Amino acid sequence: MTSSTSASSGAALDAAALARYIDHTLLKPEATQADVAALIAEAVELGVYSVCVSPSMLPLTIPVDADLKVAVVCGFPSGKHASAIKAAEAALSVAQGTDEVDMVIDVGAAKAGRFDLVEADISAVRAEIPAPLLLKVIIESAALTDDEIVGVCRAAVNAGADFVKTSTGFHPTGGATVHAVRLMRETVGDALGVKASGGVRSHADALAMIEAGASRLGVSGTKAVLSGAVVEAPANPAAY
Ligand SMILES: O=C[C@H](O)COP(=O)(O)O
Question: Which residues act catalytically here (predicted)?
Fold first, then answer.
């Protein structure tokens, strides 16, 4: 795959460079250890940045010569877990070798304007993830107003997160949008990374998210996105 494309820098972004933006993701409830082994093999083949899996799939077996990180979700997909439970889940994932934790906020707290509670929730998980390990905060942007997106991003900055991330990919309101990514990037500036996830189904989607300010992409249909093909949305998108 040698397709060249432009990104926010305006420089050409070939498939190999685009792959380094990607967390190759498998979060379906029905995923098996065999599915995860296949995910890892494909991740190595494609040269992506990381694999992103559910915590029960840890520990992962990553080839020793592979430049491949491990990311795991936390409080996923609803975010409606007590902070102590999210913190314990993060601590176990760290003990089992994850490099990054993608936690879900309590979206209801954001809808209520209780960004103090959002910050405390993030801080509780942050306390279990020592540097240089990374904490990414899933804000479920499609369920939030612009003001709520700004408030949650500021809470994530205050709590010491490393990234803000648009979506679980499992919420009925939808996934990443260029508008949300741009607003998140404007809010956090260069202080945090911005991960676009949920519904990134094509090469064009990926480039649009990067142009808007994404520094990481969460993608399940990675091979198609990197090949320039279009990944059709699942027939019955997962929702809860
Ligand atoms: O990053 C996590 C998402 O669940 C991936 O979403 P997707 O399956 O729409 O690519």
Answer: 102, 165, 195
Domain contains 210: yes
pLDDT means over runs of 10, the chain (240 residues): 42 85 98 98 98 98 97 98 98 98 98 99 99 98 98 98 98 97 98 98 96 98 88 58
CB 39 within 8 A of CB 51: yes
- The reply to whether 136 belongs to the active site is no
How far is the C-alpha of 85 from the C-alpha of 88, rounded, in Å?
5
Number of structural domains in the chain: 1
Q: Is residue 157 part of a domain?
A: yes
Rounded distance, CA 114 to CA 112, Å?
Answer: 5
Residue 195 known to be catalytic: yes
If you measure from the C-alpha of residue 89 to the centroid of ligand 1, how many angstroms do you get, rounded to a whole number? 21
What does pTM read for this prediction?
Answer: 0.92
Q: Whose CA is nearest to atom 1 of ligand 1?
A: 218
Tell me, in angstroms, the distance from the centre of ligand 1 to residue 72's CA.
13
**Nearest ligand 1 atom, CA 218:** 1
Ligand 1, pocket residues at CB < 6 Å: 25, 27, 52, 168-169, 175, 197-200, 218-221
In a domain, 237, yes or no: no
Query: Domain range spanning residue 136?
Result: 14-227
3-state secondary structure at position 19: helix
Identify the pLDDT of residue 13.
Answer: 82
80 has catalytic annotation? no
ipTM for this model: 0.95
